[in-house]
Specification:
The structure is a homodimer of 154-residue chains. With 154 residues, the first copy, chain A, is α+β, with helices and mostly antiparallel strands. Chain A is built from 4 helices and 8 strands. Helix content of chain A is 23%, strand content 45%. Chains A and B meet through strand 1, strand 2, strand 3, strand 6 and strand 7 of A and strand 1, strand 2, strand 3, strand 6 and strand 7 of B.
């Protein structure tokens, strides 16, 4: 297997194509990962969530990491990592345009609302009293690698 | 869709069955995610990596998060999250027994060495000069949720 570094364009194409990955946030240097659907536009990644630990942590510390991968086997895979900043699109006049754009982009996904709208039976009532949080991740940097089978690293 | 909280036993079974997930570490409150193969035994998760950013960060801050998921669609999925601590199994007499155990467990996986042994053509020589880092994640807590289609949350 050889491992090839992907170009920025390839990384963005891979992110757009995936539309699903894992988001990590951190509080007091404790990382936390959640699976997430998203839509990429320009240098931003749009998604949404219901209020909870993830949102609380990202409000406190906007530094996040998003990873997507496609693993056929141990020698045939791609992995893209984004370092970025959480940017909440609040329900305010200032953010109205971006929030509407996020909603529009996310609605294009079939079943777009379900992963972010997860509620457990235990705290459904509590969460239902709050609407979804729309946000974007502003991309600071991204990198990606592709494993290619059958070629030995030089 | 309803979302059901998994028991500890179900979480451990799901982790064992997956054997693959995403590991997040954090440095200066910047999280970083990498895909990772692993083996679970008792309250520990065994894996290995070549020297690099992930290992540097975990040596500096042992707090990590491991997530595995199985997503059929937006309403049929499981996700398990582990909070734990990185524990390097050094090549020293004190760690020899645990290190040998990690090696033995990991060898049972087909292709076990490839994901952790990733080298890019660019820095292959540099990385080849160092052996793999064996480590375990000591589980502090774990939780899991399962999305079940066709049942409305009460």
């Amino acid at each position: 297997m050889n491992v090839i570094q992907m170009t920025r364009t390839e990384c963005l194409e891979s992110l757009c194509s995936a539309g699903f990955g894992r988001l990590a946030c951190a509080f007091d240097n404790q990382p936390y990962i959640v699976p997430m659907y998203f839509v990429v536009e320009g240098d931003a990644i749009y998604s949404f969530a219901l209020p909870g630990q993830k949102v609380q942590w990202m409000r406190h510390n906007p530094r996040v990491c998003l990873e997507t991968d496609s693993v056929k086997n141990g020698s045939d895979w791609t992995s893209v990592v984004v370092f970025g900043r959480f940017d909440e699109l609040c329900d305010t006049p200032e953010s109205m345009q971006e929030r509407a754009r996020a909603h529009e982009l996310l609605q294009r996904r079939p079943m777009w609302w379900e992963p972010g709208a997860v509620v457990s039976a235990k705290n459904a009532d509590q969460k239902r009293s709050h609407g979804p949080i729309f946000f974007r991740i502003l991309i600071d940097s991204l990198s990606g690698f592709r494993g290619v089978p059958g070629i030995e690293a030089k």
